[in-house]
Amino acid sequence: MNVYKMQELLNSRGVSSESIVQIAIENQKPYSKNLTDYDGYDALWEVLNDEEVQNIVSTMLFLDEIFEDDNKVVNKYDELRDKVRQDYGLYGIDELLAETITEKYGPIAKTNYGYIDKTKPGVISELDAAGKETTEVVNTFVDDIVGALAASVAAVIAHKK
After folding, report:
1. Which three-class secondary structure state does DSSP give residue 51?
2. DSSP 3-state of 39
3. pLDDT band at 33; cut points 50, 70, 90
4. Cβ distance 45 to 3 under 8 Å?
């Protein structure tokens, strides 16, 4: 898979590259003066170009889409379906998979992700709210993807600056 396909998949779930870069830049501004959007896009490109990241992001996006669909397989696991659809606090698999992305970029990414996951800046709060308004839209995984990507982008910037 290539970076363009990753961006296409994220766009299909309401996530633009710009929204990820904005969160990362805002997160890193106190520590790296004179950051530009170019720094953010360059770091995002690096993160999205990693095959492991692509696999994790693709899987997480796939899971959101699967749980949106009412079908025999999803309905067979009705308790799990309900937990995923409501982004149940003790489910935690979404955060666990997201943290797997951040582990590739070190402690800065992991701590940034924890902060971003709690504060839900930018598009993350929109995705989180939209996913909780109805069971037709499942954003249980995508909001954590954005947080992990933004945290990882911020870490890449920090390592370069």
Report:
1. helix
2. helix
3. confident
4. yes
Label residue 148 exposed, middle or buried (CB < 10 Å: 0-12, 13-18, 19+): buried
**pTM score, two decimals?**
0.92
Closest CA to 122 of 13, 25, 6: 25
Of residues 49, 70, 67, the one with CA closest to residue 59: 67
Q: Kindly tell me the sign of the dihedral angle through the C-alpha atoms of 3, 98, 123, 66.
A: positive
Token readout for 113 is: 């992700």
* Total number of residues shown for the chain: 161
The amino acid at 155: A
100 to each of 52, 55, 75, 86, 94, how far by Cα in Å?
A: 9, 11, 28, 22, 10
65: its two tokens: 């889409």
30 vs 19, 38, 118, CA distance in Å?
19, 17, 18
CA distance 31 to 154: 10
CA–CA separation, 125 and 131 (whole Å): 10
